[in-house]
């Protein structure tokens, strides 16, 4: 069973991966009793002096207080000559809490800054859970000293568990480059956080030495093909956050140019870890029974390919057909049509796995409904759409829409 | 039970309304055996010489052949000096059927034109049902003569039934103005058409005398607040169509200026009929148990208000919370935030019915969860969001997202 009492997703990895230690990053988790009982719900992460920090945050216009605070701090630059820290709590999102929200953020940041002897401007926070309830920040402040004393380079797996809300499994991924550079990430997110919303939190750490501006560029350039390429139900949280820290304490030479061989290797590995975590979030999609890759090619440009892929991935009709193991390519055609992207009905080619089901504006002459239905029984599906117009391409990932989703979101709080 | 064997929606009107006869419009329906057995599936509508015709069609880029044909014909103008006709079949959408699709449309139009002695350019068609299957148009052609002989001014109720697919009740509405002018409409649509998609078809008739350009303007000006203001599941069909015909055979004086008193009365009545039919489509939303009005005010402009209202109406999180009778205003805040519209978290006011639940960036101090939960038990709900920024306003209508929706769309075809 997951932390919230839900059964573990059938799409979960077999086990939490062994994650390497990142020199210069320490973790501590503990129970503050914010909402959940009998489990850790607060994590403190300390990042060594001389590190750099980058971030990406929700575009919601009703962002939570901690998001606005993180953005303001990162706008001052990503250098952390004296070190930095991240404090994450689950159980309460501190969102839509009026002026009190920022006061809670300030109180937590001040406590962490004092405990770790850091400038308050280098303390970042995340809150996830119920919204519209005041954050009992005093419970976090009360255990800050204990957390600081418990910091440990091996605490990453505990942290991955402490940040869970309705997640049914903890999410972690890593990569080690040929030069010894290490990248580690943890994430939470599973569609939505009962009883409120779909917060996704991601923390990435590397021992590479990367100037702050370059680090931000490495992070930003990977978003569109990883975390912005997944959807469970099209809902965006007020609190989505991704923070990446680079300590420079690893074996690799400093990376100052992402177009250098070392820079390219780093970016490829970083984006691989990001994609792995993004896929894990989809695999924990509420009620999900199938992991679906939707690959769009032949679009006028990449943006149009993304539009088409997301229209398919977010279509309740497509998602329920997949849940019903129905090779319903007509719903794909309809989703392409409504996407707003340039498309020509008579050039479309649609395939399920390797099986072409439609081409040139009509069902493929060799289409075999029995074979297509057999394919749809699988747990891992790939739907390809070729628009036949240009070179634009984009792949996104989603899951099916099942009775389990309704159960969790309609029935959970009551 | 509805035609497709589904139970009648709990939100259905008590009975089909008595619709007045429109002088100059005749209906005939019959069984062609296109897909369904033991029921009418083809309707022929004859519109008298001297009428004018207007239309509105899906914006999908994968439009069905009949849609492209209707649009091309209306692009030549809306006058019908020799009369016009509409032929509608259910059971097959003739969508994504390649070049054969247009050939089927041509065959049907030629047969109707011959049977009614009309120019083929004034014969409009609609097809709704399964997509990607060739339309057996010869079955329609074979009964065209019978249909022509059976035309009757009183056949509108039968027509409302013949065009149903997964609809669980036939949809009709009417208005009679003080000067005796009559407006009648029928519609079909219920989310989606099993096993394929969400086609909505609407046919409106009036005995008013209205020049074609003015008629089109009267129709177009009402779309944003009626049929474009409803959503069951955000999916748009390849085949949505609305046709309005004015025969000029009624008691009223010709309407040449929509800003005249008579013009304004006509537009108000027409839009009222359109809104009534639009609401009936939502009330037949697949699996719907609640009819929900979402009223957004205080937006920067009407377009932003529409964006916010639709983001709320299409949010699976909001729709499942409503199904669960959960007064989950946090999900409303999140939907506002993701809408892309201008919004200020600290100016938002959210109400369920007359109950203000949140204001000024936080839960209302007088918020009473028990009272809010009691309100959510109702079958007809109103959610109001005031953005506090400007004068933009828009109201949309939707339904909840239930296990019934998954049943119909995941399990129906298998």
UniProtKB/TrEMBL annotation, chains A, B:
The record marks 128-129 as: Involved in the stabilization of negative charge on the oxyanion by the formation of the oxyanion hole. The record marks 198-199 as: Cleavage. GO terms for cellular component: cytoplasm. One of its GO terms (biological process) is L-arginine biosynthetic process. Pfam families: ArgJ. Belongs to the ArgJ family. PANTHER family: ARGININE BIOSYNTHESIS BIFUNCTIONAL PROTEIN ARGJ, ARGININE BIOSYNTHESIS BIFUNCTIONAL PROTEIN ARGJ, MITOCHONDRIAL. This is Arginine biosynthesis bifunctional protein ArgJ.
């Amino acid at each position: 069973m997951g932390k919230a009492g839900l059964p573990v997703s059938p799409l979960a990895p077999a086990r939490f991966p062994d994650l390497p230690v990142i020199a210069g990053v320490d973790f501590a988790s503990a129970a503050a009793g914010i909402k959940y009982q009998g489990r850790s719900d607060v994590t403190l992460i300390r990042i060594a002096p001389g590190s750099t920090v980058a971030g990406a945050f929700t575009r919601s216009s009703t962002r939570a207080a901690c998001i606005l605070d993180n953005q303001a701090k990162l706008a001052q630059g990503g250098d952390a000559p004296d070190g930095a820290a991240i404090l994450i709590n689950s159980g309460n999102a501190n969102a839509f809490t009026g002026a009190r929200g920022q006061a809670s953020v300030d109180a937590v940041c001040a406590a962490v800054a004092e405990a770790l002897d850091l400038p308050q401007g280098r303390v970042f926070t995340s809150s996830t859970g119920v919204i519209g309830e005041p954050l009992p920040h005093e419970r976090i402040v009360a255990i800050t000293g204990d957390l600081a004393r418990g910091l440990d380079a091996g605490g990453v797996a505990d942290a991955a568990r402490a940040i869970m809300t309705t997640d049914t499994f903890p999410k972690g991924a890593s990569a080690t480059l040929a030069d010894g550079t290490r990248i580690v990430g943890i994430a939470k997110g599973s569609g939505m956080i009962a009883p409120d919303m779909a917060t996704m939190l991601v923390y990435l750490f590397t021992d590479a030495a990367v100037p702050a501006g370059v680090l931000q560029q490495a992070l930003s350039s990977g978003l569109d093909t990883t975390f912005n390429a997944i959807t469970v139900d099209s809902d965006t949280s007020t609190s989505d956050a991704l923070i990446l820290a680079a300590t420079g304490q690893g074996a690799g030479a400093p990376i100052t140019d992402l177009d250098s061989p070392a820079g390219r290797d780093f970016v490829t590995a970083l984006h691989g870890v990001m994609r792995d975590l993004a896929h894990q979030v989809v695999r924990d999609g509420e009620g999900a029974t199938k992991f679906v890759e939707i690959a769009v090619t032949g679009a006028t440009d990449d943006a149009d390919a993304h539009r088409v892929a997301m229209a398919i991935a977010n279509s309740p009709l497509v998602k329920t057909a997949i849940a019903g193991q129905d090779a319903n390519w007509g719903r794909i055609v309809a989703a392409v049509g409504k996407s707003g992207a340039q498309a020509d009905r008579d050039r479309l080619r649609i395939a399920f796995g390797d099986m072409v089901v439609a081409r040139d504006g009509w069902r493929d002459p060799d289409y075999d409904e029995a074979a297509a239905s057999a394919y749809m029984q699988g747990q891992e599906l790939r739907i390809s759409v070729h628009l036949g117009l240009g070179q634009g391409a984009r792949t996104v990932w989603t899951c099916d829409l099942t009775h389990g989703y309704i159960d969790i979101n309609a029935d959970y709080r009551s």
